[in-house]
Every structure is written in structure tokens, then in C-alpha cells.
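Sequence only, no structure available. Ideas?
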Amino acid sequence: QVQLTESGGGLVQAGDSLKLSCAASGPTFDPFVMGWTRQAPGKERENLAQIMWSDGGTWYAGSVKGRFFISKDNAKNTVYLQMNNLKPEDTAVYSCTADRTIRGQGTQVTVSS
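Reply:
I predicted one. C-alpha cells follow.
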């Protein structure tokens, strides 16, 4: 069974940057696509970014395009989310996903104004 563990969240000020990490473990980890989502209190989960595990092709939601960047390290079974110019509306629990079906517990990101 694949498990995903996120890290790197925290409390930052508007305009700051954070880099989230998601480490995957399990004997059969070989995803087609990895991604990041977020959910703010009272709001629906939002898909933010995806990366193809084989060729690195990426997709971004319009709300984060140009500010957030997804990357991966296949050797470490890890996917990253570099978040720049953070805004208070980016405050949420950020989770990574594998093949859009497995999701980690998430890491809290809080952006103060």
C-alpha cells in the first residue's frame, strides 16, 4: 500500500515562499501522475498542480500558475511544490496525491497579511 507523507508547511507572511515535500513509500510505488491539492476551511478541495511521473509534464490551476511550481525526484520517490509570492487566500491544508486516488494527510500552510 502506497503512503504519502507531506512536510514543509508552516506560518508565513504574505509575499513569502515555501517549499512543500511529499515522500512516497510502499513496495509498489509507480504512479502515472502525482499532484498537489489544497482545502481551505469551508471550501471544496482544489486541484493545484500535477506532474507526470515518467516525462515530467506539468499542469497548473489558473489560481496558482506562475506562482507555484511542481517538481519531482524519481530516485527519492518525492514530489515538491515550490510556492512563491504567497497570499492570505493560499491558507489551506495542502495534500499530495498519487494517480488522483491516494492522498496524504496534508500539511497546514497559513499565510498572514
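The chain has a mean pLDDT of 96.
Hope that gets you unstuck.
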